[in-house]
Amino acid sequence: MSIAVEIAPVSFTPGAVKELFKLKDQQEIGDDFGLRVGVEGGGCSGMNYILGFDQKKDGDQEYEIDGIRVFMHKAHGLYLVGMQIDFQDGLNARGFTFNNPNAASTCGCGTSFSV
Fold first, then answer.
1. What is the DSSP string of the chain?
2. pLDDT tens digits for 65-90?
3. Residue 64: other Cβ atoms inside 10 A
4. Global pTM?
């Protein structure tokens, strides 16, 4: 008997994992919430990334990535498969960054892309 294991479409760097656990703890986010990763229309290049704690909704797929409960709408996987999320804490930039191999172009803000 074979068990199918669904591979998570996105990954996190160790810095992103550390920051996500820190945010969850600081904001006292309950275990019924997970991290929503997705896309929405808008931004300089046509699509924006969604990243924030939320409750599971109809149409979501759920993943466990590095100990983090992650929710993603099924349709968003097409745009996000292979993406790595990092957290930068430097002098020039501070915040989450998205390294998306599916993006044909990105804008200077780093949170908007086109396919």
1. -----PPPSEEE-HHHHHHHHHHHHHTT--TTEEEEEEEEE-SSSSEEEEEEEEE--TTEEEEEETTEEEEEEGGGHHHHTTEEEEEEESSS-EEEEEE-TT-SEE-TTSSEEE-
2. 999 999 999 888 888 899 999 998 87
3. 10
4. 0.81
